[in-house]
Amino acid sequence: MSQKIESQLVILLPKVRIWALALTRNKAAAEDLAQDVAMKVLAAQASFIPGTNFSAWVHRIMVNHFISGIRNRREYADAETMPEVPVNDAHEDRTALREVSWALDRLPNEQRQAFSRIVLDDQSYETVSAETGEAVGTLKSRVHRARAHLRCYLGGERSILAA
């Protein structure tokens, strides 16, 4: 069986390299991954069940090895090495909330209601459509325009909001 596995692996190696490149997006890392997988396949050949899909078995070995490598490279930070993150003062948060409230008040009523129910209340377009009788497309359009207007209001641009 050893010769058969080795010959199947040799035939499959170009495909293994393509899979590796798709996973790593780096030629050198892909070559390393393909070599590691080839070694793992040869080491685990006794666990291959004849008559099953050899290509799928090799692919699963590759994906598992790739994921394990990512997990092993994760960096863990402790409290001493954590970067300082600036936190807004409470008055800055209140000011931001007032600005958002001011901008929401300036939206056309239909846009404000659609935005409020769908974005702020986290209701689905379908639910709001069923309750109001408005078409889903109409609601999506209103929410889109409301978002655009809010971006303009909060960004200090008021000239394009004549609509």
Which helices and strands appear, and what pairs or packs with what?
Elements: H1 2-24, H2 27-43, H3 54-73, H4 90-105, H5 109-120, H6 125-132, H7 136-155
Helix pairs in contact: 1-2, 1-3, 2-3, 4-7, 5-7
**Fraction of residues in helix:** over 70%
Low-confidence stretches: none
Question: What oligomeric arrangement do these chains adopt?
Answer: single chain
Number of helices: 7
Measured distance between first and last alpha carbons: 74 Å
So what's the CATH class of the largest domain? Answer: Mainly Alpha
From N to C, what is the helix and strand string?
HHHHHHH
Total beta-strand segments: 0
CATH topology annotation of the largest domain = Rna Polymerase Sigma Factor, Chain: A
Describe the protein's architecture and organization.
There is one protein chain. The protein is mainly α. The protein has two domains: 2-73, RNA polymerase sigma factor, region 2, helix turn helix motif (Rna Polymerase Sigma Factor, Chain: A, Orthogonal Bundle); 90-155, Winged helix-like DNA-binding domain superfamily/Winged helix DNA-binding domain (Arc Repressor Mutant, subunit A), CATH 1.10.10. The protein contains seven helices and no strands. It has helices at residues 2-24, 27-43, 54-73, 90-105, 109-120, 125-132, 136-155. α1 packs across α3 (54-73), α2 crosses α3 and α5 packs across α7. The N and C termini lie far apart (74 Å).
